[in-house]
Amino acid sequence: MLSRRLSMKLFRHLRRNNFAFSYRVITQPNIKVYGLTSKDLEFSTPTNSLQYYCTDVKNGLNANEYDRIAEETLESLLESVESFEDIDNCPEGFDVSYSSGVLSIYLGDYGTYVLNKQSPNQQIWLSSPISGPKRYDFIGNKWIYKRDGTSLHDLLQKEMTAIMKTDISFMDCAFN
């Protein structure tokens, strides 16, 4: 976590270099810095050179906002994944279910994806048979894996495209 003094110093540096962002975000008492490129962020620069993103620990969401956003995300993914049955290369044994904040995608021999809400952490957790477990935080209106900056939708799109052997898109899903 950054100290208030360091966060104000970072704020002044970003403001001098014409970064546009909300003052409220940078002055929260619990700030973390994550190494992401500016294209993944809600603010950008002419040179696209920003290497850090500042956000408060709880993503600035109250419990109701988090629940609404997480539910909307999982429900939109469910709608998109349900259409996979129409794909010629859909794996045998394909099934999808959603109940109590848990989305399960069964892909036969390829394994099972499980996405679930983690309300105490305000995260969505993913268990992937290809890339393993990941925890996504809501940053810049997207679900982002902090360790590598990948969005939930981008990872699912990449892995599902490889499994289905056809282009899969989650561009129409909520919070993509």
Automatic annotation (TrEMBL):
<comment type="similarity">
    <text>Belongs to the frataxin family.</text>
</comment>
<keyword id="KW-0409">Iron storage</keyword>
<keyword id="KW-0813">Transport</keyword>
<keyword id="KW-0496">Mitochondrion</keyword>
<keyword id="KW-0406">Ion transport</keyword>
<keyword id="KW-0560">Oxidoreductase</keyword>
<protein>
    <recommendedName>
        <fullName>ferroxidase</fullName>
        <ecNumber>1.16.3.1</ecNumber>
    </recommendedName>
</protein>
<dbReference type="GO" id="GO:0008199">
    <property type="term" value="F:ferric iron binding"/>
</dbReference>
<dbReference type="InterPro" id="IPR002908">
    <property type="entry name" value="Frataxin/CyaY"/>
</dbReference>
<keyword id="KW-0410">Iron transport</keyword>
<dbReference type="InterPro" id="IPR036524">
    <property type="entry name" value="Frataxin/CyaY_sf"/>
</dbReference>
<dbReference type="GO" id="GO:0005739">
    <property type="term" value="C:mitochondrion"/>
</dbReference>
<dbReference type="InterPro" id="IPR020895">
    <property type="entry name" value="Frataxin_CS"/>
</dbReference>
<dbReference type="InterPro" id="IPR017789">
    <property type="entry name" value="Frataxin"/>
</dbReference>
<dbReference type="GO" id="GO:0006826">
    <property type="term" value="P:iron ion transport"/>
</dbReference>
<dbReference type="GO" id="GO:0006879">
    <property type="term" value="P:intracellular iron ion homeostasis"/>
</dbReference>
<keyword id="KW-0809">Transit peptide</keyword>
<dbReference type="GO" id="GO:0051537">
    <property type="term" value="F:2 iron, 2 sulfur cluster binding"/>
</dbReference>
<dbReference type="GO" id="GO:0004322">
    <property type="term" value="F:ferroxidase activity"/>
</dbReference>
<dbReference type="GO" id="GO:0016226">
    <property type="term" value="P:iron-sulfur cluster assembly"/>
</dbReference>
<dbReference type="GO" id="GO:0008198">
    <property type="term" value="F:ferrous iron binding"/>
</dbReference>
<dbReference type="Pfam" id="PF01491">
    <property type="entry name" value="Frataxin_Cyay"/>
</dbReference>
<keyword id="KW-0408">Iron</keyword>
<dbReference type="GO" id="GO:0034986">
    <property type="term" value="F:iron chaperone activity"/>
</dbReference>
